């Protein structure tokens, strides 16, 4: 019930410098579960923003009245990685020892925000739902922790895909839940949902 909403939400996107993606933003109005209306869109060219500083942007909504006020900071990623299974970041015994020392009891108060990190090996899926007319799917897997999101590549025409990827997330809240969702890539259309599992960090 507001024409001047304040969200104050922070989202972290892992942006790789070799990509030239635009950040697409949509503002929606929702009356109930069934009725939604697009109130406007805008774009941000991330490559044009200065690094290592917070940029305050007031973006007019295209073809609609109103504007969006945002703070965007482009900074080097820390603690986030995507790698193949054969070069797993925790596979080196000396690295594991360094991490054990970093999170030992005596170092607990050295950096209060550095709670730890989560490493997830996404191996494969089995007997997925067939989303295509040919009885196959084009599955990829999305991992979300808080407002962090990473995803695998797509394995085409396969109901038993193997990704063999290792994802590392910094943990910001020990009460967060890791959500792992499998989607079917569908060209320019939104991906089809193939299944989901939720894993509370406190259960690990």
Automatic annotation (TrEMBL):
Short name of any one Pfam family annotated for the protein: C2
Stated family: Belongs to the MCTP family.
Domain C2, first and last residues per copy: 1-59, 93-204
Keyword list, A-Z: Calcium, Membrane, Metal-binding, Repeat, Transmembrane, Transmembrane helix
Localization per record: Membrane
Cellular component aspect of the GO annotation: synaptic vesicle membrane
InterPro entries in UniProt: C2_dom, C2_domain_sf
Main location: membrane
Protein name: MCTP2 protein
Molecular function in Gene Ontology: calcium ion binding
SMART domains according to UniProt: C2
Membrane topology classification: Multi-pass membrane protein
Organism of provenance: Urocolius indicus (Red-faced mousebird)
Highest taxon listed in the record's lineage: Eukaryota
GO BP terms in the entry: regulation of neurotransmitter secretion
